[in-house]
Amino acid sequence: MLIIGLLAFVIYANTLKHGYVWDDDIVITYNQNVQKGLAGIPAIFSYQSNATQRVEDQYGYRPITLSAFALDIALFGKNPFYGHLMSVLYFALLCMLLYFTLQKLAWQYPKWIPFLATLLFVVHPIHVEVVANIKSRDEILALLFGCLAFLAAFRYVKNNSFLAYGAVLGTFMLAILAKEHLIIFAFLVPAALLIFYQASLSKILNLALPLSLMMSLRAMLISDIVSTGMAVALLCLNVLGLVLLYAWVNRQQLLASRKNSISLLDKKKAGSFVAALVIVMVLGGIMAHFLGNFTATTPSKIAVEKVGEQGEFIESFELNNSFFHVYTYPKRMALSFKVLGQYAKNFLLPYPLVYFYGYSQIPLTNFGDWQVILSLILHLLLVFYVLWGLTKTGLHRLGSYTALFYLVSILLCSQLVVYMPDTMADRFYFTPSIAACLAILLLLAGLFGVNTAINSISEKTKKQAPLKSNSLLTVVLIMAGVYALLTINRNKVWQSNEVLFAADMPHLKNCAKAHYYYGSSLYKKFKNASKEEQEQLKEPMLYHLQKSTEISDKSYYGYIHLIRAYLGLSKKEEAFAALQRVTALYPNELKSNQLMGMYYYYEKDFDQAIKYLLKAHQKAPKSTEHYFYLAWSYVNNGQTENALLLLEEGSELLPKYEGFYNVMSDIYLREQSYGKAIEALQKLLKINDNFQPAYLKIIDAYHALGEETNAAKYLKLARQKGY
Question: What CA–CA distance (Å, rounded) separates 375 from 339?
Fold first, then answer.
């Protein structure tokens, strides 16, 4: 176990000097609850709908993970080094627990099977996003508690321990509060007890019912669209699946009991089978009732535009997920199988891996696509193997559960049942990859004819089959070595957003949002660069922002940054053409109207400027950017009273923003209303007494009024501040 933990730490040691990257902002940098440290934990546990637009709620309800981040802040402050250190340590602990869990799961099999499977899990590069990106610690913590739930369940079924039973429920609750996708363990844990420990139907249901209830309650917190009826249907489906699995596993014994005299044990099994059929019929009816009254979720219900608290457009989820562009279920299924095939490819050949798979990195498709057909055949074979392997003993039973684990854990990521926020992501494959690692090892063992037979079903007396195949060990070690090198190399690109976006851009040529991310990072760099550097940056910056808008009209901020870049380069015609396009696509949005109004302001067409800036103001009256241009457009159009009224309204909405009083003072000085100008400047200095231009203006205003004493007073204050 220590070797596993040490290797996990060493593999990811080169992430410790990385900064906050990707989505770390929503869980750490800008999350006020997390930034409060331990004091923020009560607020973290108070449920907020993830339909709200506060940064604190954009992560969803994962209080265990957010509390872990808050603990980091309490102990170490806002320092990414310790955030990365804790994530790597949690991952190392998880890998040790995973090895121990696989040992207990496959207790009838040689110990080298769980060891080598865990080795592949530790070094596989598909896990880089989870470990190198602090935000994805939710995956680690959820699986860590999930492993503890497995271990507690094994102890419960062996010792009939009430304490172990409580531990199963407690650790499962912690797992699903770390990240909700671990609800699948409500099925996988009881299934393992049945398959490997021959647990009775009563023990399975003793666990399945409370786990299913917790699963259903947790599902209702995943999304506001999950109804109570759907949660009940989910509960029934889980128990129904376990009962059917029990019936199938005992199929051989029940068939035999029909031919021979039925022993007492056979009678019990036959009675359990009848009970299982009754449960199936009852639960099936309940589930059918709720599913029949459940309105199917459509992309339009999920892919809504995200809007900030002040009415400002943030983004459209349609750019994150290609599934939001599919409106028939057959096409959704085709895209799902293409995604599932891509996951399998990324696991077997983990290059290139990318940080984002938004629209349209994986193009929309249909069942005529050979990749879809191949993926469909592969997953159907896995289903058949599960059913066939469960009636067998030895290696096939372990392989059957491995396939079952894979299919169940990948189901949520497939988007066949529910919509995910992204088309696909390496982090979504974190839990399914356990089964993938074990499957690769079992396939290699079968290929090389390695002895994995069970010598004894007694855990105390069984003899472990040693690994005598040098060929198998050599292949696994070569794979592990290659994966480890790829992982260490992949870690490097996660050091910052700028490096990440640039490194993955060559592999994201069809992704609208990736072009926007990279183009906007170049735009940010461009604004602070020297003229020589700007000359080098301008072409790639414009290309990627243009490409983002060409791929999808939903790239709203692609347009906004492109327009700003054009204006910064004095490309007025290109800027105006882009402005016309974005205001036609988004006629009521803040930034598009602000920019169009500003464009007309600088063109001295104040009527048009007022038209667009008023739209921006009505959309987001608390956004300060348009106030200056709208106020001066009014003044230059002979509507000074409207300008002053606008600024007064703004100062009431945002009383701590000094900009309103600064513009107000300039207008009064222009109108030679020196007393009112002084009044505005005094209010400004109460808000910010370090606002240097205010001192010069108030001194000039007092001079104009002939009040030299007051002018001298403010001159003295200015000099004291070093102005």
Answer: 9
